[in-house]
Amino acid sequence: MSPAIQPTVIVVGSGLAGLSAAYAALQSGARVHLLDRSPKLGGNSIKASSGINGAGTPAQEAAGVKDTQTQFYNDTARSGGARFKTASTIPGFDREALVTRLSTESADAVRWLSDEIGVDLSVVAQLGGHGVARTHRGKGKPPGASIVLTLLDRLKASDNFTLLSSADVTSLLQHDGAVTGVAYTQDDTEHTLAGRVVVASGGFAGDASMLATYTPALAGLPSTNDPRPGSHALLTAVGAQLLDMDSVQIHPTGFVDPATPGARLKFLAGEMLRGEGGILLSPSGSRFVNELDTRAAVSKAIMDAFPSVDEDGTRQWDITLLLDPGAAAAAASHIGFYEWKGLLRKVKLATLSPEVVASVQAYAAAVDAGSTDPFSRPAYGHWKLKPDAESLAQAEVYIGRITPVVHYTMGGAAIDTGGRVLRAAGGGVVPGLWAAGEVTGGVHGDNRLGGNSLLECVVFGLAAGNGAARGD
Ligand SMILES: Cc1cc2nc3c(=O)[nH]c(=O)nc-3n(C[C@H](O)[C@H](O)[C@H](O)COP(=O)(O)OP(=O)(O)OC[C@H]3O[C@@H](n4cnc5c(N)ncnc54)[C@H](O)[C@@H]3O)c2cc1C
Q1: Atom of ligand 1 nearest to the CA of 272
Q2: Does the keyword Flavoprotein apply (predicted)?
Q3: Which of 117, 200, 228, 340 is the most exposed place for a label (fewest CB within 10 A)?
Q4: Strand partners, 123
């Protein structure tokens, strides 16, 4: 391609959506500028701990898991709840088409990351709300860090790629209704860049002011997101339509650090801890929920049944996450880190309260007998502890305190299946503008399935990057 006609694509945000868009745009022949306002790259994507979903992958086949795109679509729609049953009034917006693309391209997304980019995604676990194990991670580093860092290295190897960190995009430039570039600030100096734009600036779960506007009832809850302002106003300023903004996900398991219990920012107790066999216990030591139900259902079971406590102005709960030796071994790559952080500790089961021991014994008996769980938990993961008195007396388990936390924002800019941003008024798309990842809305309905965010970033990030490079 002649340099004279090489298109320029500007990507706002260095999370997985932005990195995927940048990669696709480079592959489609564009020159790419990737801007992130933070000096630290990777956004929330780099924190992802459970993994990315894919239906019909080689890793599933190797683990003996039978899955289909239809099953995956249905699980996503079930988790998304009422929003999937209500027809949209936004011209050009088609929720079902977005989820169809998400589910049908999920195995390709996992294959792209593992085969083309070189990320280990060979382990699958069953997360809450999923009918089967389809959330992929590697054997070593947590998936978010390994995906982001590997992808960044691949991008940096291209001569057509320019990375600008600490570059805060302050507005999108427009000419005759089309987006033509960005204005940004770096080192207190204002700059502009011309090109087609992909906004991949993430969600607003770290923006107290936006949360107060859209979900005032969540005031005081802790969050897994670092405090940071949402950048949705960049999009609305050029006429973008937002949707589902009041759908904010509460994750049931954020760790309460015993050293700083009232801290507003919490480490996520990754869902795979329950997927691999961990159980939840009430303040009095009883099981109370199917730990593998959707995030909304597990969070509701906690928040409705037990009183919250106010610790330094943070509204939280006192629930115990417990992993037996089998679950802990399966989650070993994460457990060491959580133990080092003081969030999980290894204890003799026999030193815990009689109520906890009785709950563990009853659960172990159900697993051992293969009988139906009283809370309809569909799978027991790698739980191995036997219910006999000697096994219980000898057992060492991991325990940590967890609480529901604000985690993810389902709402954002309305897009079509190619990642083009839909207009709030008059129908059609905003020319020159694409968006992908958590800044967009619609794919997850009311409640996102664990592992679907990284997947959304890849599927729609690649689509947006390709579209922006080609200009269609
Ligand atoms: C602790 C934790 C664990 C998670 N685990 C999982 C998991 O296992 N699986 C899963 O699917 N999802 C998980 N998620 C959710 C998932 O990680 C994120 O929702 C997803 O990665 C969002 O990616 P993104 O690229 O859209 O945004 P982000 O990764 O958040 O990146 C957005 C970037 O845009 C930059 N930015 C914002 N505004 C501007 C601006 N104006 N100018 C320049 N730059 C800007 C930000 O600095 C940021 O770096 C987890 C989330 C958290 C917090």
Answers
A1: 8
A2: yes
A3: 340
A4: 137
Query: Into which CATH architecture does domain 3-247+410-470 fall?
Result: 3-Layer(bba) Sandwich (3.50)
Test site for ligand 1: of 12, 45, 164, most ligand atoms within 8 A of the Cβ: 45
Determine the distance separating the centroid of ligand 1 and the alpha carbon of 251, expressed in angstroms: 15
From 33, 232, 274, 401, active-site residue = 274
Q: What residues form DSSP beta bridges with 422? A: 429
Residue of 251, 382, 401, 448 marked catalytic: 251
33: annotated active-site residue: no
The reply to whether domains 3-247+410-470 and 255-406 share a CATH topology is no
Question: Can you tell me which atom of ligand 1 is nearest the CA of 137?
Answer: 8
191 is catalytic: no
Q: How far apart are CA 159 and CA 156, in angstroms?
A: 8
| CA 205 to centroid of ligand 1, rounded, Å | 10
Cα 404 versus chain centre, distance: 15
For residue 366, give the 3-state DSSP assignment. Answer: helix
Alpha helices in 28-115 (DSSP H): 58-62, 69-80, 95-104, 106-111
Complex ipTM over 0.90: yes
Output the CA 348–ligand 1 centroid distance in Å. Answer: 38
Element (H, E) at 22: helix 16-27
Q: How far is the CA of 16 from the centre of ligand 1 (A)?
A: 7
Rounded Cα distance between 331 and 114, Å, is 21
The sign one gets for the Cα dihedral 76, 50, 283, 384 is positive
Q: Which atom of ligand 1 is nearest to the CA of 45?
A: 21
Q: Which ligand 1 atom is nearest residue 49's CA? A: 8
Q: Where are the domains of the chain?
A: 3-247+410-470, 255-406
Would you write out the chain's pLDDT as a tens digit for each of its 472 residues? 445 589 999 999 999 999 999 999 999 999 999 999 999 999 999 999 899 999 999 999 999 999 999 999 999 999 999 998 888 889 999 999 999 999 999 999 999 999 999 999 999 999 888 999 999 999 988 999 999 999 999 999 999 999 999 999 999 999 999 999 999 999 999 999 999 999 999 999 999 999 999 999 998 999 999 999 999 999 999 999 999 999 999 999 999 999 999 999 999 998 889 999 999 999 999 999 999 998 899 999 999 999 999 999 999 999 999 999 999 999 998 899 999 999 999 999 999 999 999 999 999 999 999 999 999 999 999 999 999 999 999 999 999 999 999 999 999 999 999 999 999 988 899 999 999 999 999 999 999 999 999 999 999 999 999 999 999 8
- The whole-angstrom separation of Cα 236 and Cα 326 is 49
